[in-house]
């Protein structure tokens, strides 16, 4: 038990740019880890509502969740993350209308991310910041996949919040955040112009630019280099895979937002370690 009382030395350093002064209130343990997963999955239920309603500019709080075919209002016992979907076998309780697999998927992804964040940082400021950010990235990913848009209502407040938080994180610095916004927005803007000049097609949307600016606000300018590189790498591997599956270059637009979001998550968990490894390669 004495081992639990002493938090692991890495706890509290979770914000990739943070120094150990970021306070960790509670160190990770197994029971709290289960709660973290459940909490993340419950929030995932709400994220599903955001994913379905935000592109239609509907309220995310009213009316309560209901079946899209028969209007049956989802009861609380049919709204338990992941479990309810399995018990209902993916169908509405009243009319049997199939429920999208996206519901349990989003709940599971958000639960797993929350658990991973908790194991990485314990409970504290870093966890709170990264939890909200990751939840926003889940919403961005699924909306972009389906609608090829990234809502300004997430990225624009996100830029402001990321910049404001830079004042609260010791050793991070508002200037780092501000340059991150400029580097994130500016670099993709350049790529978008370049791509358009070369191909006369729009490859990159304004949403991607604002998303990367938001990530710059949260992580600073160095992270932008990593995120662009990682997103392009993952994007080209998957892009080539999709093209080969379709056996032709259909010019099918694959949204870039999900790759930026995935790269940001990779950065949160492994970024500083990968950068260190890269810089010291061959030594
Ligand atoms: Zn129904």
Can you tell me about this structure?
The chain is mostly helical. The protein folds into two domains: 14-19 and 26-147, no CATH class; 153-283, no CATH class. Helices cover 63% and strands 2% of the residues. It is built from ten helices and two strands, in the order αβαααβαααααα. It has a two-stranded antiparallel sheet with strand order 1-2. The longest helix has 26 residues, at 174-199. The protein is globular, with a radius of gyration of 20 Å. Mean pLDDT is 86; it is low at 1-14. Residues 67, 69-70, 72, 92, 94-95, 97 line the site of zinc ion (ZN). Zinc ion is lined by residues 67, 69-70, 72, 92, 94-95, 97.
Name some characteristics of this structure.
globular; two-stranded antiparallel sheet; binds zinc ion; mainly alpha; 2 domains; 283 residues
């Amino acid at each position: 038990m004495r081992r639990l009382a002493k938090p692991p030395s890495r706890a509290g350093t979770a914000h990739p740019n943070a120094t150990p002064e970021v306070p960790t209130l509670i160190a990770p343990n197994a029971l709290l880890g289960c709660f973290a997963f459940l909490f993340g999955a419950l929030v995932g239920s709400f994220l599903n509502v955001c994913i379905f309603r935000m592109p239609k500019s509907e309220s995310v709080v009213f009316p309560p969740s209901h079946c899209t075919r028969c209007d049956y209002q989802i009861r609380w016992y049919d709204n338990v993350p992941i479990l309810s979907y399995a018990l209902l076998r993916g169908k509405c309780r009243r009319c049997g209308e199939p429920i999208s697999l996206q519901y349990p998927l989003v709940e599971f992804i958000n639960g797993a991310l929350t658990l991973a964040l908790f194991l990485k940082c314990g409970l504290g400021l870093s966890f709170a910041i990264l939890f909200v950010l990751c939840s926003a990235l889940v919403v961005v990913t699924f909306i972009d996949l389906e609608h090829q848009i990234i809502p300004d209502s997430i990225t624009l407040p996100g830029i402001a919040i990321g910049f404001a938080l830079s004042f609260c994180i010791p050793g991070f610095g508002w200037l780092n955040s501000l340059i991150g916004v400029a580097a994130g927005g500016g670099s993709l803007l350049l790529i978008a112009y370049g791509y358009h000049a070369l191909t006369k097609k729009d490859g990159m949307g304004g949403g991607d630019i604002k998303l990367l600016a938001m990530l710059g606000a949260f992580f600073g300018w160095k992270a932008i280099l990593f995120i662009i590189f990682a997103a392009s790498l993952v994007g080209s591997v998957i892009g080539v895979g999709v093209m080969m599956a379709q056996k032709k270059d259909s010019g099918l637009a694959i949204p870039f937002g999900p790759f930026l979001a995935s790269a940001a998550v990779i950065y949160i968990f492994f970024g500083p370690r990968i950068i260190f490894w890269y810089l010291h390669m061959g030594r």
